[in-house]
Amino acid sequence: MSTSDSGAVRDFLASDGITPSEGELAALAAARAQTEADARTLHATAPAEGENAGLPGRAPTFAEGTAPDATHTPDGSLLRTADALAQGKVSSVELVTELLARADASDPGLGVYLARFDDAALAAARDADDARARGDVRGPLHGVPITLKDLIASREGPTTAHSAVPPRHTGGEDALVTRRLRDAGAVVLGKVSLSEFGFGASDDPELPVTRNPWDTERWPGGSSSGSAAGVAAGLFPASIGTDTGGSIRIPSALCGVTGFKPTFGAVPVDGVVPGAPTVDTVGPIAADAADCLALYQVIAGVPARGPGDPGILRGLRVAVDTTGLDRPGADPAAGRAVADAVRVLADAGAVIREQAVPGLADLETACRVVQGAETYDTHRERLARHWSAYGSLTRVFMAAGAFWTARDYLHAQRVRARGRRQVAEFLGEYDVVLSATIGTAAPRLDAGLLHLLPLFYTSVWNATGFPAVSLPGPPNVAGLPIGLQLAAAPAADHRLLTVAHALQMRTDWHLRRPAPSVRT
């Protein structure tokens, strides 16, 4: 980039009080050029300016049903844990004590926890055991240990967003999803790591670098990295994460667990640190789809019912989207995983057709615009006051959102509105869309991540707001996890997770776990 380009960027950001270094200005000038190219593409395909840019509403509630079938779920899953507690095979105190000891042994090498609530968790576990002894069972998660991504407020301590940037949100009040978990009987073990503010990486040496339990030299994915890594490592049976462009599904794919992004608006975000409010979503990460369904129903506040008929795959109309699997850097294992899933579905009676999601590229661009503009708006004042406290990658990513204009943002929302209608019509012909979650297995931590962005196939479902789940597929030749993604129409959350559960009933890919990582 030329000196004049950097100078223009300097002058532009100075109006917001932001003063990047010379090196950062060069990176931001390159980001501005990419923004302008994306804007040209966006405006060439955008709907008319008068077209409605409204956002999707909340999902409806569902009727009461039967308890989930825990068949073919791995030991340590949320439902098996709840069942063991209900049958008196183990106490909540014993579970919490064991999991905290497991974290003592392995977490220093994985960087999963940001804050552990040992005393509070043990007290809550004792209270749960005493209540059960009196016949007072509070809900489906009574005594079950879980964790929260550190964007989600809990009364035990501050919410830091894995960042040194002040002010940190102090403890004292639970987020609404945290209250719902406690009301269902859950025991909160602590807060877990993430990409800084769900968007980048902190440079603070006091904050942990999260590692993938399959290979600690590899990235666990983001931004809900600690949630997925901790479930995969057996440090807790489930965690609650957030997803703005794939932040639940990407780490779930790379760590070999199941992660669910619900329909936008189905789960409240009250008490959750915002990023991009028109795409931010809260959802579960757990061992399998049945566990995710149980957690989803609690945090969404809908009546509990287990997965539906596992025979749902017979006659299921499946669109298989292989877009991007031939892009540079894609692991052939991603394509093989999709093909293996197609064979399982076809053998179960599903009707398969290879068909790309309509308007996919436009929706991905629109999501980048919305994420960038809204995240910058969320952080603009703090970036001006605390620029150097943000991680170097985070602050450049966030500041690049300043280059989107109001016209770009409004066009992006119109593209989203049109895309929602197109994809909803498409899903009138198909029940689910199957794709890879990511076109690769976990990269090395020192490999750099920007070149991988074209291999993330998640943001289209944030742009539409439709539900999507990542579940483990067959591994690559090195034995590393590969993720499969299923998506469905808005408010079809239960049906989608039933399909994912039925697929997992016919495979064992989700049963694989890494060898324990023990501190030496």
UniProtKB/TrEMBL annotation:
Sequence ranges assigned to domain Amidase in this UniProt record: 94-497
UniProt signal peptide: none
Ranges that cross the membrane: none
Positions of the UniProt region annotated as Disordered: 45-77
Name used for this protein in its record: Amidase
